[in-house]
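Service request form, structural biology core

Requester: graduate student, group of Dr. S.
Request type: structure prediction, single chain
Budget code: on file
Notes: please return the result as structure tokens.

Sequence provided:
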Amino acid sequence: MKKKQRINPILLRKKLRFRPGFYLIIFIFSMIIGSSLIHLWSLHISMKKELAELNRQKISLLEQQRHYEDEIARLNTPSYIEQLAREQLGLVRHGEIIIAPKK
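Core staff response, request fulfilled:
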């Protein structure tokens, strides 16, 4: 038969006794982890805000790019090139006469 092992009450009291150093270490460790989590959460929130701002800038730049592509396509048409040559450079077609108002 196996004997039941008796627990010595003195040993039990030593195991359960209050150890302030151990609890202090647990408390400090918990505070460090808590502050790290708070810092990580604030970084997460700031990164989300920055991502939203960058997405707004991206949309704005894509609209600007589309505007410039449309303008390039318009500038490359022969009729617009002719219009610019007439207005800005004063060029005329062969046989045309320029009538300028008096200054």
